[in-house]
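Notes continue from the previous slide.

Worked example: a multi-chain complex. Inputs as given:
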Amino acid sequence: MGLLSLAIWTPIVFGAVLLALGRDEQARAVRWIALVGSIVSFLVTLPLYSRFQTGTAQMQFVEKAPWIETFNINYHLGLDGLSFWFVPLTAFITVIVVISAWEAITERVNQYMAAFLILSGLMIGVFCALDAILFYVFFEATLIPMYLIIGVWGGPNKIYAAFKFFLYTLLGSLLMLVALIYLYGASGGSFDIATWHQLPLPMTAQTLLFFGFLAAFAVKVPMWPVHTWLPDVHVEAPTGGSAVLAAIMLKLGAYGFVRFSMPIAPDASREWAWFMIALSIIAIIYVGLVALVQRDMKKLVAYSSVAHMGFVTLGFFIFNPLGVSGGLVQMISHGFVSAAMFLCIGVLYDRVHSREIASYGGVVNTMPNFAAFALLFAMANSGLPATAGFVGEWMVILGTVKANFWLGLAAASALIWAPAYNLWMYKRVYLGPVSNDNVRQLTDINSREYLMLGLLALAVLYMGIHPKPFTDVMDASVANLLKHVAASKLN
Amino acid sequence: MIDSLSLIVVLPELLLLVMACVIAIVDLGVNSRLRGLTHWLTMATLAAVAYVCADFAMDGRTFYAFGRMTVSDPMGNWLKCFSAIALMVTLVYGRPYAADRGMLRGGELFTLSLFSLLGMFVMVSGSNFLVLYLGLEVMTLSSYALVALRRDHATSTEAAMKYFVLGAMASGFLLYGMSMLYGATGSLDINEVFRAIASGRINHQVLVFGLVFIVAGLAFKLGAAPFHMWIPDVYHGAPTAITLLIGSAPELASFGIAMRLLVEGLIPLAIDWQQMLMVLAVASLLVGNLAAIAQSNLKRMLAYSTIAQMGFVLLGLAAGVVDGSTANAQAAYSSAMFYIVTYVLTFLAAFGIILLLAREGFESEEIADLAGLNQRSPLYAGIMAICMFSLTGIPPMVGFYAKLMVLQALVAGGTVLHIGLAVFAVLASLVGAFYYLRVIKVMYFDSPITATTVSAPADVRAVLTVNGALVLVLGIVPGWLMALCTEAVLKTLAS
């Protein structure tokens, strides 16, 4: 069994074991097994880093076995610079989520933990799959645990949110499925993604494929104007659900652009780049402004996620190395930062049971340690230099300025909006005198929460100060991708 | 005409017929509540029949018997094998339910279902219009009686009446169509009819006229809109165990008869019947999915969902011949076969859960009755959830691959019409997702109304678990079943 299979199946097997365990009397054992499972599956991903060869765009750790021979579908896995970092990131976030749910979840603990472990394995599968059907199976299967997570452990309006999440994302993926099947026919019976990258396609086909993929990936990212499901879902989802959704699931969509849309339909990608850039700029500016007026903290962070993901798609469709790597770096850093933001809200919510900004005020007086963490993450979310949030945005802005000064300027305006909503929220929630009895009775974070936020803080700072390991892995693959996009597939 | 080879070819049918009679007689001496001896004899018979069919199917050769009246080929034998297994599963799930409702006072349930299966076998292996019709009637007549098994129960008898009247009409359509084809071609033998039509010397208008009636009759039997009216009423009105019986194995047989009539006999007219099937498919997807949303009764909802799922089967059947070329035929027909086989598998598990939840004097039919099932019994809730996700077409459940195969066959058709149909089917299944998800929502998100845990006899629990697991396992390794269907269809087309 290869390393990638191990990374995919370890959490799934642990999840299945948890499902078999059953009742809530065993909750303590369940939590420990979940923690051990998530840590083991994170440790499994570490050898990937030490063995990964930089400087080549080749797929590494490749595993290939026939799966459904009737349709020439293979169990085909591999990693390159575009997908590499998401595997350890996913496993890492899963560990954090398991820790975060330690006390917050008391009902049906085994199903909760199992859902997250299985989800983790499925998401790693998406990033590793080199066969389109395998990709699709993992991509779609993630809906099942997420639907249950939102619906079972969510807030008062959870059912609406769960349905909205499922149906929105299913609509997108189904159109992608038709595109995949078309490519299967066009390539003479192959679901191998790398083969599709070489396939000559006429412009009409490319355009239709591009929009087929766009339907799936834009909803998942989510890009403006199909982002409306995200705030609803975030508000209702439990803390862990929000963290995984923002940190990893949104990346599945963005990853799709670099794996499918851009290399398979390069001419259509160039043709419609203006459209993608326009949507991204709208996300950055308009959605950033929308975030400013939110009263609910989760909604605020949800809108800020849409705005930050705007940088990712902007970077991709600028078509220069800085932009594309910037987009990828932004995906990773947003993974850390958004997870941290949602977990901070979760910490407050567990104590006060409110996400309204107005219910708080002066939290720093009663929870000084926690407020320090929150400040760090708010700063990272604003893109402060030396935090993870800065690197990706800065690269994308630089790349954009190279392509077009005015676009770069528009994107750079995010450096005003993001601090505005983050700092204003921080001021209203944490600073000032203690505003009410709820806040007065708050207790500072315990060692478990310390551990969870501390790990994330380390990641955020490390990536901000020393981003080289992240970009080194990508460079060759990004260059290769851009070479693909630059070459026309017409004729 | 009756040679020893012929007798071997119809061995499964003979076995069924003899055993049905033997069981009827043996049953006279049985008076236990669950009719133990009758039940186990039936099971043994079905297992033996399924084994023989599978053995024939794996042999892979095609034999004609009784002067080309019947045929034994891999497709037919696999369909028969799966029907027998489906009936076994049905009887395991349905026995406690039937016993609680006094439906086992005599052994009719077992003998009638064996006769019904005999009809299906004849239907699937007929190579002559009359044999096909004979099989159809044996099956449906037994089914009418089965639906009316609770003769003191008003809704059941009403359902039986509706089923009988509409079913008789459908049979009439089919017979009328057959007679017109006979008039035009001068033969009842399917291969003869094929040759006569392929020669191109027969008036096209007469043929199409007959064809319309045949397609209408088949659409009735398959439950495709707009000939679907009986499905919700009969599924709803019949005792749940019988709903399972008429909704599972007969679907396989209906597919078999459709393949015999349309593909083996009338493929030169494919251009004409494919258009009709496309219209039926679009109507089924639309009517089935939209009407299912409005249902609060689980059995009715699943009935409408059957109509919608049949739309997919019809799309598979309708994609076989493109511009006169049959290059796509194997992919198209095997996708339809795979679809119907996996659909029956999923349908069995879903109704198994409904039967399980029904207690003495209480029918668990409303979707709301499933509320909080996850808290009461995570295993059964999990099985039901797997079924619902499979019917929606979410991987890694087997339903996804069924849809994938059909869509693949459609897109391979390559014309704008085909791709348009694929996109339409995809959008329709998005609508379907809504009501399937609602079942999961009720089971997982709502709080239970009663705190009673669900208990089941050991055999029901074991079969149900295997059945549910198969829906998932076949989704993870669907390759062999796909290969089986492809192979079976290939051999049938070649003969």
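Summary box: The mean pLDDT of chain B is 89. The beta strands of chain B are 63-65, 70-72.
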